Amino acid sequence: MSEASRPADGAAIPAAQPPALLSVQRRGGEVVVAAALACAGAAMLRGALDLEFGTLALPAAGFVPALAGAGLLVSSLVSLATAWRSVGPAAEAPVRLVDRTTGCVLLLLFALAAAFEALGAPITLGLFILAMLRLLSPLRLHVAAALAAAIAGTLWLFFARLLEAPLPTGPF
Amino acid sequence: MDAYQQLLAGFGTALTPANLGYCLLGCLWGTVVGILPGLGPLAGMTLLLPLTFGMDATSAIIMLAGIFYGAMYGGSTTSILVRIPGEAASVMTCLDGHEMARQGRAGHALTVAALGSFVGGTVSILILMLLAPPLAEAMLAIDPAAEAVVILLGLGVVTLVSPTSFAKTLTMLSAGLFLSTVGFDKLTGVPRFTFGSLELSDGLDFVALAIGLFGVSEILLSLERMTTLKPIHPRLREMFPNGATLRQAAPAIARGSIIGSAFGIIPGVSHVVSTFVAYAVEKRLARDPSRFGQGAIEGVAGPETANNATTGTAMIPLLVLGVPSIPATAILLSALMIHGIQPGPMLLVERADVFWGFVASMYVGNAILLLLNVPLVGLFVSLLRIPYFALAPVIISICVIGVYSVSASGFDVWVMMAAGLVGYLLRKFDYDMAPLLLALVLGDRLEESFRRALMMSAGDWGAFISGPALWILLAIGGVLLLLQVAAWSVGYNRRVARAAMEEDG
Question: Which of A59, A87, A125, A151 has its CA 20 to 30 A from that of B154?
């Protein structure tokens, strides 16, 4: 990079974004999210009505959940209607939902949750950090592996040994 | 024992080597999360919350509060040096702070910001110290009906001032309220929404939900906006402003202290609002308003002071009423409850040691931050060069370790991941997580006090609008609402707030 094209101090240079795997129009996305929340509200209200509601003077266990479920349902329907009627460039702007990096990180997060107790904290965290470093950084495999082992080892020593946090050890 | 002696005893607690160490750790971590764009006080506190489980309550709150006001200090560094607010309350500092840095006066801006933060923080701790004991005494007579009204007022004001639409805020509030009802009903013992699961019988774990909604979702969002920062590096000898600069900044620091302290008590986004108001006031009072945006020192001193002056008074609703006014104090509430301490008027009676130890630690923490921030600014600036690819896996690993260690339950790790995914999707469409968190943490108390009040009054709803205590509370609520409306009319609007919120951690 030449001196002239090098960014000056005080600058923030955004990294190139990978292409989006899932991108939606803001209006459509808002409608889907509000509809999902309304469904959740309806399910909560339905579940709350199975509990004893009591009376207005003496509310029972189902009273507050029913109110909360109804609140969620009604407010989500209002959001849905607002999104449905929205027009203009803001409503049509694309919203990047998942790109390759975010998608892979999400998969790694759920794999981490699934393996954490079975494989134990040191191994799972080591593998997770290695996978994240390979995904996000330009580091070579052996450098990333060494760094992952060092980070996972330090975390294990600090939390499990020093702070005596009850972490799973796995099969070993 | 009078207040003076209790404060001295508090200093005795705060100055023990262990508590001093926790205060220093909290301040350092707070400064780091304040400096790093994308991580704010909330994410910083939730990430280290699990570390506090092995500590006693005083040490835990000392460390977490250190993170809170440390982040307020740190946020200004990124604003001034790279024009990216480290956290939402530093948005206004970008305008004149970065302009000063471009003119070669970065050191002056940083030092004035640190001095203002110190003065603002100290003034607000003084107000906390003076107001909390008499208020707590007055609130001792509070009954379940009054408690329900106070909590409802808090949640109501949060709903009104949230930067997102009213419907979306109400959605989040309802969701939080609903999630707080999962588990056994405290009054009747009836299981609610447990689906026969043992893990759900005690309710959803607050720590797992908070870390998922704020921490994990923030990391996912940050991965999409990774940037390489090239901060301006001020030299140590450039850090000391001359007399003229200090004379210009002093009145702005005084006004910022008053504005921030007043706004700290208001539920909602008080620290963000106070910076906008402080900036607007400085610009309005200036002889030459055109200097603002061109590197006016008052544009840095006012907002930065106000921002830190909210931290002490924001503790008043938490410690006196047990009602957090902002998400950061909700994390403090949860930490205290984990240690078996219920904040509220009885805190000063039953656990005065915790209260005064905490107040004293805030004085100590403010001094630590002033001493750290000026000489170590070069080191903190270097943090901005740490690539996010190295930070993200470490932060996620700490989240997992923390959530798992609460109750050695893999289920909670799943809850955290699911909350992270849901939070990520909702934040993409401008749903604010703060009302959900506040409703979640206050929901069970609201329900309990509401139902108890009706039981005690034999079903008379008039209990909620009768009695002198309730009228006082309603009056306070009215005043708070008026102040908030005034803030919005002076210099705060939803569009700017939303932009600020996007920067918030």
Answer: A59
